[in-house]
Every structure is written in C-alpha cells, then in structure tokens.
Specification:
Length: 227
C-alpha cells in the first residue's frame, strides 16, 4: 500500500510518501509562508521524488488536529480535493497521535504536548510496545500544571511544547524527543494511518479542541449581550 501523508497542523509543513516498509520520500519544512502557498507544491515535489503520481497512491492521510485552525483547514481541504478528484480513500489522524508515532520503538510511555494558548497545552498519552503505539488517553486541552500532576518519570515528551515543558518541570526526570523527531512528520501520519479503517473525504473534519476565533468572538458578544 502506498500512502501520501500531509501535515499542516502547525508551523511545520510536512509531506511524505510511504509504504508498509519504508519512507519513500519526505519533505518537512518550518515555513513562514501560508500552508496554502506551500502544501500543493510540496505534494507535487515529494511525489516526483518518489517517482510516483497521485494515481499510484492508495490512501491519503492528513492531520486533523489539534493545531492551527487555518493550517488544518488548508490541509484537510487539499486532501478532500485530491480524494474527490482521484477517488482515493483517506484517513484523518490526530496530530498528537502522529507525534507519538515519531517515538515508535522507544518502548516507553509517550506524552505528546503542543502549545495551545496562555498556560494551556494540547496533550495525550500513548505507549510504545515493540513499535506498536497504543493510546492511553483522549486528546485534551488542559493547563500544563495539571499535566505535570499526571505525568510519570521516564516518559518521553514530544511536540512543539516538549522542551518548554521539560524546562519548567525538570524534577520529573522526563525524556525529551530529539530535535529531528520532536515536531510533526507526515511519515508518522502515514504509519499511523496504516492502522486505521479508511473513510470517505466527506467524513474528514478538523478536531480543534477549543473554539475558533470566530466562535470565541460570537460567544463574547452573547455574553456581553446577556450582561
């Protein structure tokens, strides 16, 4: 099975082509450009490096959040367009689960941690057992102090807030993912996507875990009107 993975959930833009045995091609960049400017050219480039076209792809995997509202919408919209046009099956993967797959083979408990806002983080716990990643908790948005209370020594921390979290709570003897595995990788989405049942493009949807800015503004207006 050939898979195309796309992650636009943060400052990272990552695209990969994988099969069950290897990463055939991958490009991951931290960019200031909007994902709408970069993601389709990246897909074209990675497919070219893999010596494939979209016709050779069996399944498209995309990060569905949590993460950047705009980035997630762009990635999901791009995948929907490709799936509708080429009649491909797809899978949506939690950004936090994709990060956990970066730590496959460690044999440890894994905590994915992404910055949300103020003192909040997106987080979830996983465990690796001989390369098999098992989810231990649902994706949540919680204060990082609460995460500190729950986390156990020896846990591997991965994600864009991992270094900050370990620096704040150095007494827990936590393990920091190395820089090249700390952020989103489309190849990890692909390997996570191999373990899921495919869905149709119509079923793809983002999981923000908190209100979008438009929803927050509307909520504030409602609260102000009731005051």
């Amino acid at each position: 099975m050939n898979l195309l993975g796309i992650d636009t959930s943060g400052n990272i833009a990552s695209v990969a082509v994988c099969n069950e045995n290897t990463v055939i091609a991958q490009t991951t960049v931290m960019t200031r450009l909007t994902h709408s400017q970069i993601i389709l050219p990246l897909c074209k480039d990675v497919l070219s490096k893999a010596e494939m076209t979209l016709d050779d792809i069996d399944r498209i995997v995309v990060a569905v959040g949590p993460g950047s509202y705009t980035g997630l919408r762009i990635g999901i919209s791009a995948v929907k367009g490709m799936c509708f046009g080429a009649e491909k099956e797809c899978v949506g993967i939690s950004t936090l689960e994709g990060l956990a797959f970066n730590m496959s083979g460690t044999g440890r408990k894994i905590c994915s941690v992404m910055s949300a806002r103020q003192n909040l983080v997106y987080t979830a716990f996983f465990e690796d057992n001989n390369g098999v990643i098992t989810r231990l908790s649902e994706d949540r948005i919680i204060p990082y102090e609460k995460l500190y209370e729950e986390i156990s020594e020896g846990t591997v921390i991965v994600g864009d807030y991992a270094k900050n979290f370990i620096e704040k709570f150095s007494d827990k003897n936590l393990l920091l993912a190395p820089p090249h595995l700390r952020y989103q990788l489309a190849s990890s989405l692909c390997f996570a996507g191999m373990t899921k049942n495919p869905i149709t493009a119509d079923e793809l949807d983002a999981s923000y875990l908190q209100l979008t800015k438009a929803e927050k503004d509307l909520e504030e207006k409602k609260n102000g009107g009731n005051a």
